[in-house]
Write a structure and sequence with these properties.
The chain is an alpha+beta fold and 270 residues long. The protein has two domains: 124 residues, Alpha-Beta Complex (Nucleoside Triphosphate Pyrophosphohydrolase), CATH 3.90.79; 116 residues, GTP Cyclohydrolase I, domain 2, CATH 3.30.1130.10. The protein is built from seven helices and eleven strands. The chain is elongated, with a radius of gyration of 24 Å.
Length: 270
């Protein structure tokens, strides 16, 4: 039973989006193991925007910016919360500056999901209500159109050439031969544009070096395997939404410019 003498608690909740437009969810024991948003109480004298940044930082170790106020929810003794409570929750949309989540002890797991895919999760009641609210749906759509899509761009490494062991013929397993590798990544330039900080984008020099090292170390027999592994390496970077990889063997076919394999791969939702 709730305490009749207590007052409703001011709280904040954050719909934290990454560059791909996915939302961060935390699996929270205090919500019966359901998926919830980073959220918490507002401290006395604390502006709501500061409370959002603090709560997200405490629960996920993420920094957020571009805060947008969404709606206010009254949570009157929600059945899935671990104790009787009365919250006045101010929901905000926020952009994650980075995507490396380090959880505190308030959650046991996390995931990034698109707003549509998130509805398939076992969400706590306030989060489901929030995601189904028309005003919130419209804000998420508008933010995706005006933010992510408008700031998307491509990082390209074009025809990086080096020698490596590649092929199935006996002589190819002994003697390195030239390989040309082209990589095209789709990523969001918004943070890099705003900060001019290379850590907020994909470093194409580092990308080229890592791809070259992978190809030379692995000594592939098939370039089909090579391009799949390079694409998988690229998509490990959560800032990358899709990649196109092309590998060319200039000496494989007499009279031909090259033999080549090209693939396109997209990030799959968790």
């Amino acid at each position: 039973m709730s305490n009749e003498n207590s007052k409703p608690v001011n709280a904040v909740a954050a719909l934290v989006q990454n560059q791909a437009g996915e939302i961060l969810f935390l699996k929270a024991p205090k919500w019966g193991g359901r998926w919830a948003l980073p959220a918490g109480k507002v401290e006395y004298g604390e502006p709501l925007a500061d409370a959002i940044r603090r709560e997200v930082r405490e629960e996920t170790h993420l920094e957020v910016d571009q805060l947008q106020s969404l709606i206010v929810q009254e949570l009157l003794e929600p059945e899935d919360f671990h104790v009787p409570a009365h919250f006045i929750s101010h929901a905000f949309l926020a952009q994650a500056v980075s995507e490396e989540v380090i959880r505190n002890d308030e959650s046991v797991d996390h995931c990034w999901k698109s707003p549509t895919d998130a509805l398939e999760l076992s969400l706590n009641s306030p989060t489901r209500e929030l995601l189904e609210h028309p005003q919130v749906c419209q804000a998420l759509l508008q933010n995706s159109a005006n933010g992510k899509e408008a700031a998307m761009g491509q990082v390209i490494v074009d025809q990086l050439e080096f020698d490596c062991i590649i092929g199935i013929l006996p002589e190819e397993r002994v003697t390195p031969q030239p390989l040309r590798l082209s990589i095209q990544l789709e990523t969001c330039f918004r943070q890099a544009r705003e900060t001019e900080d290379v850590t907020h984008t994909v470093d194409y020099f580092q990308l080229a070096q890592e791809a070259k090292a992978l190809c030379q170390k692995s000594e592939y027999q098939l370039i089909e395997t090579l391009v799949e592994d390079v694409a998988e390496m690229c998509l490990r970077d959560e800032r990358v939404s899709s990649t196109r990889v092309r590998a060319e063997k200039p000496q494989a076919i007499p009279g031909a410019n090259c033999s080549a394999v090209e693939i396109f791969r997209e990030r799959k939702s968790n």
